[in-house]
Design goal:
mainly alpha, Endonuclease III, domain 1, 12 helices
Length: about 200
């Protein structure tokens, strides 16, 4: 599938072809370990934090549960003060409790998400406080392995498009959709290349 995706993107977009040739082979890192809940807990903890700080807090949180991600019931039963001592802000504490409540009640049925289309997954996940469209799209791309996702609010993709396509400013969502139209049905793969392109100096 990845070879077919890369071939399609090279044929469909000469500018992206140059990006692909510069970056090299497609080597995504799907986040397949653990449960869907684990992934969402990590996503909430990491929001708006530098990687090292977020990793420390996430590690302290897991340590409360024997170095494993908690179940919804465990998370709901944990006193807020204990979670705050792990380094969680009151806001993120609230997000995690809301996540646990909605998963436990079945309001957000994580087990059935792989069977739903992209729009339905985004609609389900954004019912959770603190989970916006961008977080839901990252879940689609890196947890569920969906191949045709375009996160138009992602700053890295905006920057990479601006550089690759010689734009004067950051592209609007509409401009990004237009540029990415030829990439369908492999916009996720194209985005992976755009993210990686930022690791290289300007040509």
């Amino acid at each position: 599938m990845s070879r077919a995706a890369v071939r399609h993107l090279k044929r469909a977009d000469p500018t992206l072809r140059r990006v692909i040739e510069r970056v090299g082979p497609y080597r995504p890192r799907p986040q397949s370990e653990g449960e869907h809940l684990d992934h969402l807990i990590r996503a909430i903890v990491y929001q708006q934090l530098a990687g090292a700080a977020a990793a420390t807090i996430h590690g302290r949180l897991l340590a409360l549960y024997g170095n494993r991600a908690p179940t919804p019931a465990q998370l709901l039963a944990t006193r807020p003060a204990r979670l705050r001592r792990a380094g969680l802000s009151p806001q993120k504490l609230g997000y995690l409790k809301d996540l646990a409540r909605k998963v436990a009640s079945g309001a957000v049925p994580l087990d059935t998400l792989p069977e739903r289309d992209d729009t339905a997954v985004i609609e389900a996940l954004t019912e959770i406080k603190g989970v916006g469209t961008w977080t839901a799209q990252m879940f689609l791309m890196f947890r569920l392995g969906r191949l045709d996702v375009l996160p138009v609010m992602d700053l890295g993709i905006q920057k990479a498009m601006r550089h690759a396509y010689g734009l004067r400013g950051m592209p609007s969502p509409a401009r990004m959709e237009k540029i990415a139209a030829p990439w369908r049905p492999y916009r996720t793969v194209a985005c992976w290349y755009l993210w990686r392109s930022l690791e290289f100096p300007p040509p």
